[in-house]
Amino acid sequence: MYRYRMSFLLLLLAVIALSAQAQDGGLENLRQTGKAFASVARQVSPAVVYIQVESTQEGATMAPFASPFTDEFFKRFFGETLPGMPQGEVPRNQRREVSQGSGFVFASKDGLLSDRTYILTNNHVVESADKIRVMFQDGREFDAEVKGTDPKSDVAVIEIKAGGLPALKWGDSSKIEVGEWVLAMGNPFGLSHTLTVGVVSAKGRTSLGISDYEDFIQTDAAINPGNSGGPLVNLDGEVVGVNTAILSRSGGYMGAGFAIPSNLVRNIAEQLINNGEVVRGYLGVVIQQLTAELAESFDIDQTGGILVAQVTDDSPAQTAGLKVGDVILSYQGKPVNDIGKFRNRVALTPPGSRESLVIIRDGKRREIDITIGKLGDQHLMAQTHAESADELGLSVQTLTPQLAQQFGAKAGQGVVVTQVKPGSIAAQAGIKNGDIILQVNRKPVASATAFNRAVGESQREKRVLLLIASGNTQRYVVLNW
């Protein structure tokens, strides 16, 4: 009996010892994680700058902190008018604003220069700036000038006349994975060089309505007004993104921040430095997501790919032979499933490049070679909404030459919508008076009679596919009743 008691006591002591060791090991792991974060902070902070912007705005004076705290869904960080900052005398109906943001020093492809330094930030931080001042962690201050801006991606490069300053290294944003630790550095609410920590929550966020070209990294690292333009870095201290926006109903941090991927930012920054502008590739198509309804209407047994709703005259797409109703499956040998990502890939393709598209047309796969054009005043637009409802509810009229001239259409090509019943499926699908219906079930219609006949032939399926032109934009719409 004594032997069993001793054995039990020894076993209990061993369990207690192991538990203590495990606890000590857990604490040590936490200590090491904290030290890793501290090491990154020491490495990154010297290259991060506080940006103060002075600008003159038209209109009545607004109260400090009024602008960012509206009830909008997505918030950009235009910076705050700093309380107590002298406003000076300005002409009537004008006000001088002092706002703030973040930025960081980076090396261009030519390296760090001895006579000047480039700083990356957001376009919305420095747009309309009359004066820009940057402050480093060590207290040094410099006047800055805008080197180049790209409002479409919300990227800007500013320049100071000084060299030999610490710079951050670029990381490869394509290699970062959901769940990885990331750190955001910036100046939220004017609190200089604030570090927050989180993980990558998602990648490839598009269609948020924040900028024209979107491919955001989503993170739960706390980001607030004033963080705009600051770096999002990995545990090696490399920049994997530029903090740009938050998802918020209050104006402050609510767990979802968005950063522009470093690979996209770096490409744009180099173009701004070397050319003063960003040159983007151009196809000349209007595209929309291929929904299950649209796929069924086009007799396609998949929802992968994007649908061509319009081909611009004299565009690279028309020259290559792309047609309305084509479904693009791949570009440059890579699958195409998201209109935002496809748009970005085309935009980053150098004009003059010859690329391949794989499409489906009339149920058959085809490969098309296309020479990418240069985006000028044209835009590669994305139409994303194709809704369905319960009843038809619209009237049309044949396009006479007079009506065609009035609506900017061509006589004999489509019918004009003259009435849309409120609450009908047509109204819910966004069809409006003055829209031109070009096709019904992929067949052209040239008169109101032809339109009504085509819709009548769909009574059995109680489903119709329309190609509608609204101004210069075309889109497909499926109506069910």
For the record, what CATH class of the largest domain applies?
A: Mainly Beta
The Cα radius of gyration reads 28 Å
Shape: globular
Number of strands: 28
Rounded to the nearest angstrom, the distance between the terminal CA atoms is: 85 Å
The largest sheet, given as strand count, sense and whether it forms a barrel, is: 7 strands, mixed
Strand content: 25-35%
By CATH, the architecture of the largest domain is named Beta Barrel
**Helical stretch count?**
9
Helix content: 10-25%
How many domains? The number is 3
- What's the overall average pLDDT, rounded? 81
Identify low-pLDDT runs: 60-90, 377-390
Category by helix and strand content: alpha+beta
The CATH topology of the largest domain corresponds to Thrombin, subunit H
What do you see in this structure?
This protein is α+β, with helices and mostly antiparallel strands and 481 residues long. It folds into 3 domains: 239 residues, Thrombin, subunit H (Beta Barrel); 102 residues, Pdz3 Domain (Roll); 87 residues, Pdz3 Domain, CATH 2.30.42. The strands form 5 sheets. Strands 15, 16, 17, 18, 19, 20 and 22 form a 7-stranded mixed β-sheet that branches. It has a 6-stranded antiparallel barrel with strand order 1-3-4-7-6-5. About 9% of the residues have low confidence.
Topology diagram in text:
Layout (H helix, E strand, L loop, with lengths): L1 H43 L3 E11 L15 E3 L17 E13 L10 E5 L1 H4 L4 E5 L5 E10 L4 E6 L20 E6 L7 E12 L10 E4 L11 E3 L5 E9 L9 E5 H14 L5 E2 L2 E5 L2 H6 L8 E6 L4 H5 L6 E5 L2 E2 L3 H9 L6 E8 L2 E8 L1 E2 L6 E2 L11 E5 L2 H6 L8 E6 L4 H4 L7 E5 L2 E2 L3 H9 L6 E8 L2 E8 L1
Parallel strand pairs: 15-22
Antiparallel strand pairs: 1-3, 1-5, 2-12, 3-4, 4-7, 5-6, 6-7, 8-9, 8-11, 9-10, 10-13, 11-12, 12-13, 14-21, 15-16, 16-17, 17-18, 17-19, 19-20, 23-24, 24-25, 25-26, 25-27, 27-28
